[in-house]
């Protein structure tokens, strides 16, 4: 019901009973005491009495647990979790959000193999994915992942496929949590405002699965799939676009790792210039940085800062161990790298380069090249045009056409002489 522009839900006091193989209870009218004790946590079992303007703590523990910062179940935690195993993840989410301590008896219940089995069998992957997504969008996502790891629930929550290539490292779960901890600390030190909520969320997923960025599995159609994509799409049942973006971020951050040393110095990156070699196009040495960075930013678009920040967890290669990821020295170093590279991109006027339109479309290109039919050659010429425009940001259409004609004539002479 809507009252004074505010939606109000009216519900009756309830009691519930659970079937053995379902987390969906049978509801019936109940008392305030029955309603309070059926709740997942004592801090969620408080009532506000509008007649007396007072909080009613039926379990007698809710207010005290709020004050002491403890996550406790109203009834036996094992019985509570077996009735609805999703409550394990809810306990973790609330514990991380409020920076509360998980009660020892709650942790013991979460460790129980029977509870883990119930989590796997009674809860849909969609519901698990939804809870994880809420954690990632909440106030303390890294702490939530640490709780999942500490309670030995990592592989129950993030199910890995079989036949991984290469096989994941031992303690992969620990390395994943170390990376999201480092990523979260880095984002906090720089400031949340640099990312949108969606960018922050995908930054955290990409950081969490950074240790398995090079691992693939074979799907049902015999296709190679990045394991991070599989976990997001099939294990957590999140959007396909989320899985695609995390994969793109992993690819882009590896490219940034190779590009950062070049942008930090004036050395000629012979290994990177191989990607620019073209008999039709000669890029001035002074423009090489702009072309290489521009090509990468056009691939990742407005997520380039996200990929760059993730890449600082990897750069320079082999400069640190996983255990050193969260040191203050490493945090300062990564923040400095990000700031320098971000400034370099801005100085090269590339921060919106993905919006740049080509001076010639496919049809116009066919006209300049005097071709009657299109085909793969037009696509190649448009890639050359993109590099030419990146190398000559102030180039005009006339200059562009002259370059195409001269390049075409030069290559035709070479072909004839051969």
TrEMBL record:
A matching Pfam family: PolyA_pol
UniProt entry tagged with the keyword Transmembrane helix: no
Alphabetized GO MF terms: ATP:3'-cytidine-cytidine-tRNA adenylyltransferase activity; CC tRNA cytidylyltransferase activity; RNA binding
Annotated keywords: RNA-binding, Transferase
Gene Ontology BP term (one): tRNA 3'-terminal CCA addition
Keyword flag Transferase: yes
Domain Poly A polymerase head: 2-71
PANTHER family membership: CCA TRNA NUCLEOTIDYLTRANSFERASE, MITOCHONDRIAL, TRNA-NUCLEOTIDYLTRANSFERASE
Homology family: Belongs to the tRNA nucleotidyltransferase/poly(A) polymerase family.
Protein name per its UniProtKB record: Poly A polymerase head domain-containing protein
Organism: Ananas comosus var. bracteatus
Lineage, highest ranks first: Eukaryota, Viridiplantae, Streptophyta, Embryophyta, Tracheophyta
